[in-house]
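User: Quick sanity check before I run a bigger batch. Here is a single chain. Can you write out its predicted 3D structure?
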Amino acid sequence: MNNSETIKQNIIQSAKQLYAKNLLAACDGNISYKINNDTILITPTNKPKNLLTEKDFAIIDINNNVLSGNPSSERIMHLEIYKKCPKARCVVHAHPPTAIAWTIAFPDLKELPNECISELIIAAGHIPIAPYALPGTSAMASAIEPLLTHRIIILARHGALCWGETVTEASHAMERLEHSAEILMRAHLLGGLTKLSAEQIQELYKIRERIGDKVI
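Assistant: Done. Predicted structure follows.
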């Protein structure tokens, strides 16, 4: 089995897991992987991600030229990440319901309230929210560009993007996002959000700094 086949199998497995956790529905979402500096493997358009096969994948280059297959219409934002983030090898785009709901209920929110949950600070740090842009357009790439130092980005009224150095990191980052967003939603419904103390937050960020910029 060559490396490309292994990557496809890893993406297929991750797509099924994301679908099972209700982070993808119908034909939503897309996953890509940078095989080398000029070649990107990406899931197809109009295909349920839980039904992916190895034959479905498309290949594009870093300049958005289609080399084979029928790639996702949202590939421009994937390419923006690969161009601006040298460490990025995999990009996952999904539609996590609770994370999206935060952007609808609180349209002025700039990031997920992370100072309420210790594990969120340790595992991911800040999770910014990109302003709404029309999906599949260059405007979306422009919306995320200032936020690409973060490996998890919520797309207002649309979904989320997670990137990592492996398929596993990017997929787990999406799970981390939705899990945290749901905890915060439940706390909000139960009576409101309360923050950790400034001292506690500072201690947590020291742990985060030792971990580095990966999402765990």
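The domain at 3-211 is CATH 3.40.225.10 (L-fuculose-1-phosphate Aldolase).

User: Great, the batch can go ahead then.
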